[in-house]
Design a protein that fits this description.
This is Kinase. Keywords: Kinase, Transferase. It comes from Peribacillus simplex. Belongs to the ROK (NagC/XylR) family. The chain is α/β, with parallel strands linked by helices. It folds into two domains: 3-118 and 287-295, Nucleotidyltransferase, domain 5 (2-Layer Sandwich), CATH 3.30.420.40; 127-282, 2-Layer Sandwich (Nucleotidyltransferase, domain 5). Helix content is 37%, strand content 25%. Helix 3 (112-124) packs across helix 10. The radius of gyration is 20 Å and the shape is globular.
């Protein structure tokens, strides 16, 4: 059995884990990010790896390499984090810096959603000649597409589902980007407007809905309709064989998938409805990013 280090880097936290070549997560450590400065942020990445080794019996000699998932646009070939909304790493040479620190020749870097998608694709044991889509609904909304066993990247920015405009009925029917009307912060903002309350949280919106509080019903109705519109665009463009959902919003509130399917059904033609039976929520949950990063050390798409 071979092991690799997977690192999932975000603006809030960094997760480092030891992953086997079969995709088993042996150990993970989470530490807070420090996005105030590019070097401080990199120091936190190193600290996450150091903490990982302190808590296990593994040493660098037991590790095949490192895989890293980073938000935003990434130059995979040259190992550079090009652009992010939530990190100070514009044009940051991640692979070169990690190689300098740890000495590994085998280091892989990619967008964090792509890393999570790879883990989900491997877990689903999808056929290589099919189209697989992973959708994350969390602080942001994005997706990754694996077609014929390879990532579909476009010119480098493919999969930005959150940028697709949808009809936002709650605001006089204007077009808004999906991420701005259905991601975690957007749900909180919608609740604030609908309920005239600055104190409501996204979590409380879902808890209130589950309890049947009527004031939360139109909020969830709006959010799920917005998501269905975005997913309909994906269905029309790609007609995927399978779609897996991850991200804290839907993983922590799995009832959303049933509601989304009901809304999506009304948009789909009969010939498109096969996707409804092939939509599921991640079984890897919050581990998919770090697992995918580790697995990419052993296999590259």
């Amino acid at each position: 059995m071979k092991q690799a280090i997977g690192i999932d880097i975000g603006g809030t936290k960094i997760t480092a884990g030891i992953i086997t070549d079969s995709g088993k997560l042996l150990r993970r450590e989470d530490i807070e990010s420090d996005p105030s400065d590019r070097e401080k942020m990199f120091a936190r990445v190193l600290e996450a790896v150091e903490q990982l080794f302190k808590k296990t019996s593994f040493s660098l000699a037991d590790i095949e390499g490192i895989g890293v998932g980073v938000p935003g646009k990434v130059d995979c070939e040259n190992g550079i984090a090009i652009f992010q909304n939530n990190l100070p790493w514009e044009q940051f040479p991640v692979i070169a810096r990690l190689r300098e620190q740890f000495g590994f020749e085998r280091i892989s870097i990619d967008n964090d959603v792509y890393m999570a998608a790879f883990a989900e694709w491997k877990a689903a044991k999808e056929k290589r000649n099919e189209t697989f889509v992973y959708v994350t609904i969390s602080t942001g909304i994005s997706c990754s597409i694996i077609q014929n066993g390879s990532f579909f990247r476009g010119a480098g920015f493919a999969g930005e589902l959150g940028l697709i405009p949808v009809l936002f009925k709650a605001n006089n029917g204007e077009n808004r980007r999906l991420e701005n009307v259905a991601a975690g912060p957007a749900i909180k903002k919608l609740a604030k407007t609908e309920l005239q309350s600055d104190q409501i949280s996204t979590k409380e919106v879902f808890e209130g809905y589950i309890k049947g509080a009527c004031e939360f019903l139109p909020i969830i109705d709006e959010v799920t309709d917005n998501l269905a519109q975005g997913l309909y665009a994906i269905s029309c463009l790609l007609d995927p064989h399978k779609m897996v959902f991850g991200g804290s919003v839907i993983v922590n509130n799995p009832f959303l998938l049933k509601l989304i399917k009901e809304k999506l059904r009304s948009y789909l033609l009969p010939e498109q409805q096969h996707i409804l039976s092939q939509m599921s929520i991640s079984t890897l949950k919050q581990d998919n990013g770090v697992v995918g990063a580790g697995l990419r050390v052993f296999e590259r798409l």
